[in-house]
C-alpha cells in the first residue's frame, strides 16, 4: 500500500520520566512523519490534551495511576478510548501494551483495521520478576500470548530472544524489527575527563546504571555488584540515573552498607544523560526481562561497554561490546573486572562499532514494513544520519 496512512499508536506506562519506551515512541513517530505518514499517539496522563509535535499528533487521556509503580498510568476508560478510535478512523493500529490494551486488537479485527502489537517485554519474564514460579509464569504467558497472537494482525518483536515465547506457542504472525539509537547525540566524543572525575569522586572505576528503579529492572543487582567489587579491593563507585518505586529503599540500603552510590533521579535532559553515559567506565544493565535495552545501546554508542543480565535479550544486542552475567552481584562484578582488563581504547571502540549497527532509520523502515507501509518520501529522521 503506497498512500499516506494514519497510524494510531496506543501506549500505557508512559510518563515524563519514562525511559526506553518513551524514546522509542518518539523516534518511531518522527520517522513515520518523515516517511510521509500520519502518526497519532494516544497515552494516559493526569489531564486531557491534544497537541501537534515533532513525532506527530499526541493525545493524552486521563488515566488511572497504578499503585506501587511510581506514577505509571493506564488508559482504563474503554468506552472513551473506543469512541476516540472510531473518531480517528485509523488505517493502522499499533499497540505498545500487551496486557490492559489487548482488547484493542479485537476492536481492530472487527473494524477491519490491520493491527500490530509491539512486544516491549516478555510476558513470562515480567511474571517471573514479580515472583511467579517459572513453570506458572510460562503457562500463564503462553495463554496471554495465544490471545495476543489471535487478536492482532502481527506481533512485532525487537529481538530473536523476545520472539521465542511466540515461537513456543506456534504463532505465525510474528515479525522482527529492532529498535535504534541516536548516533549523533550518543557519541564517544562526549566523554569528559572532568565530568568523569566529578562522578568518580576519587575512585578508580565509575559504574553507571540508567534504569527505572522498579522490580522488573532488578536495580538492586547493581548495588550487589558494587559491594562485591569493593569487597575485592576495587575502588569503584556507582552513579544511578533513574527513578521509581524502589529508589528510597535502594538509597537506604546504600547508606546502611556504606556503598558509594549516588542517585541522581530521572535526568530529563537527554544531553546530560549522554554525557554521563560517555563518562562511565562500564554501564550496568541488570534487568532480566529486557527485550532490547535502549539505555544499554545508548551507552555503547557513547563508547561505554555494558555488563548485562544473561537472562535478558541484551547479550544479543551488545554482542562482543560487553559481557553477559548471571543475575548476581558476584557475577556482575566478575564481568566488570573482565571488561576493565581490556585496553580502554579497544573496549570503547568496540562499543561504538556495535552501536552503529542500530540506526533509527532502519528501525523505522522495519516497523513500517510490519504495517505494510512504505515511505512516500525519501526518509530521513531529523538528527539521525542516514
Describe this structure in words.
With 386 residues, the protein is α/β, with parallel strands linked by helices. The protein folds into 2 domains: 6-180 and 359-370, Glycogen Phosphorylase B (Rossmann fold, 3-Layer(aba) Sandwich); 188-355, Rossmann fold (3-Layer(aba) Sandwich), CATH 3.40.50.2000. 40% of the residues lie in helices and 20% in strands. The chain has helices at residues 20-34, 78-88, 103-110, 123-129, 134-151, 160-168, 193-200, 220-231, 247-256, 270-279, 294-301, 314-318, 329-340, 344-355, 360-370, and strands at residues 6-11, 38-45, 49-53, 56-62, 64-65, 73-74, 92-96, 115-119, 154-157, 174-176, 205-210, 236-241, 261-265, 282-285, 306-309, 322-325. It is built from 15 helices and 16 strands. Helix 1 packs across helix 15 (360-370) and helix 11 (294-301) packs across helix 14 (344-355). Strand 1, helix 1 (20-34) and strand 2 form a beta-alpha-beta unit. An 8-stranded mixed β-sheet has the order 3-4-2-1-7-8-9-10, sandwiched between helices. Strands 13-12-11-14-15-16 form a 6-stranded parallel β-sheet, with helices on both faces.
What descriptors fit this protein?
15 helices; Rossmann fold; 6-stranded parallel beta sheet; alpha/beta; 20% strand; 8-stranded mixed beta sheet; disordered C terminus; 2 domains; single chain; 386 residues
